[in-house]
């Protein structure tokens, strides 16, 4: 695993995701309570940034058509999306968050 610094804990809002670029990938960093998640920042239905949507109940909602994705698995939990998005390992180190973009937790190759 090769973790790279993504942001600080304080930069991640409580009800939306933070879009960051790590290497060649755009990643949405989200929090649900005290847990943090890293998910591909691209809706599999309409190719828009998931970081611009709302985060609630361990999901992120695409702002354009309302598709929801589980932050743990990347699987869509609401139509119109039917394909999952990549999820990545994340580590908290002090006040910073690190993401491993070379490993996907769900086997989905990021776009």
Set down the secondary structure blueprint.
Elements: E1 4-8, E2 18-22, E3 25-32, E4 35-40, E5 55-56, E6 59-61, E7 68-70, E8 76-78, E9 87-88, E10 90-93, E11 96-99
Antiparallel strand pairs: 1-11, 2-3, 3-4, 4-9, 5-6, 6-7, 7-8, 10-11
At a glance:
The protein is mostly beta strands and 111 residues long. The chain is 0% helix and 41% strand. A hairpin with a 6-residue loop joins strand 6 and strand 7.
Describe this structure in words.
- Residues 4-99 form the Rieske domain.
- InterPro entries: Rieske_2Fe-2S, Rieske_2Fe-2S_sf.
- This is Non-heme iron oxygenase ferredoxin subunit.
- It comes from Nocardioides mangrovi.
- Keywords: 2Fe-2S, Iron, Iron-sulfur, Metal-binding.
- The protein has 111 residues and is mostly beta strands.
- It has a single domain, classed as Rieske [2Fe-2S] iron-sulphur domain (Rieske Iron-sulfur Protein, 3-layer Sandwich).
- It is built from no helices and 11 strands.
- The chain has strands spanning 4-8, 18-22, 25-32, 35-40, 55-56, 59-61, 68-70, 76-78, 87-88, 90-93, 96-99.
- It has a 4-stranded antiparallel sheet, with no helix packed on it.
- A hairpin with a 2-residue loop joins β2 (18-22) and β3.
- The chain is globular.
